[in-house]
């Protein structure tokens, strides 16, 4: 009895070593058109000009004389008093006095700038509407201000862009990750476009757009092609096929998403599977080598019998072989007294009772992703020996059909050779070993590289018509081997591993002899 079961693993994880940065720092460079800094500078200047004009109006309105013992007062918020030398009223013109006051205002403003923190200097060259001092020939002032007028500024320390490795110069820049960037040089490591959002993701020292980082690290469902959602604990939880590594949302196990009856992969939303008449689904890759009627299966069946003969295990009796639908196979199981049935689905059966079985006589036609128009025929099976017939489920790919045939033929060989009352672990285990060995002979392309006979020359007629086995067919063969080796059932899985260990240690025929006399595997 050959059967199948599907399995998937559940995984969840959280993304590690990732920082999500909010609101990157944006700075205005010294000398830029920063409105607040420029207003402060202009206000300081106009305040001094206002003081200058008030001074002139108090001292020379109408050309009258001004008394020396009443110095001018500036009615501003500072209420500062600047006494003037008496001789300056007589020796200098009003223009000279205005020039002196303007120089003093400029020197105080520049001195105030030098006391500012580094990076906040400014230049008169970048302010076209700022009044410039006139450097004409005037008499030197008799009053020396405490701050010498100067227009040489301390040089700003250069900043090198972490993106282009050039000097940032004047203008806006970004400060992030311990360095500086031109705004256009702070780019996503994935798409290479500038990061202009307020939030971005940081992996190590590489910045990313949040959506780009999600595309790179957040797994997508291979069925619906959406990001796999997180569970209640905030972890990404998904199902993963143990062989194909197909990741999908846990919900697809319950939303009636089609699953291939051969390779167990779920149907993707952008790919249509074929639907067989008994309701099973078949993926495109498995459909390429599917065997759909009894006549097409006969060459493969005889090739596997030849394989047994090459192993010195010839079957003398001609055992009928039929391809049947699921319903017919299930009915045959009900009428069969012998055999171990491994659910959820049985795909092959070695009959020992007389029954009437409906077999697939003519292959169905293919259209609109459905197989239809199948012709069936009831057949009366009479018992001429210990084995009545071998039944195999139709519509499976060639390698899987062959593996089922190899398994069921071993059941027939054991019964014909007088192996009686074996427990399921022993009988199903040694049958799985023969199925595994046949698959191995088919998957390996070079007959000289193995110690078992090959049936490739005779049983691969279907594949040879299309140019030999494709890489996908070989991959399917590896998957069917994986299914046998990792079966979790005690009879099929545990039995295979015990039988395979015995065959590997003692050889197939010594193991069979030990089973005949003891009913167990040699240790």
UniProtKB/TrEMBL annotation:
Q: Where is the LIM zinc-binding domain?
A: 159-219
* GO MF term list: metal ion binding; ubiquitin binding
Membrane-crossing residue ranges in chain numbering: none
Q: Print the keywords alphabetically.
A: LIM domain, Metal-binding, Repeat, Zinc
Ranges of biased composition (kind: Low complexity): 454-465
InterPro entries hit by this protein: DA1-like (IPR045218), DA1-like_dom (IPR022087), Znf_LIM (IPR001781)
Identify the Gene3D superfamilies for this entry.
Cysteine Rich Protein
Record bears the keyword Magnesium: no
Region: Disordered; residue ranges are 56-108, 448-470
Q: Basic and acidic residues bias: where?
A: 88-104
What the entry lists under PANTHER family is as follows: PROTEIN DA1-RELATED 2
Which protein is depicted?
Protein DA1-related 2 isoform X1
The organism of origin for this protein: Raphanus sativus (Radish)
State which gene encodes it.
Answer: LOC108806530
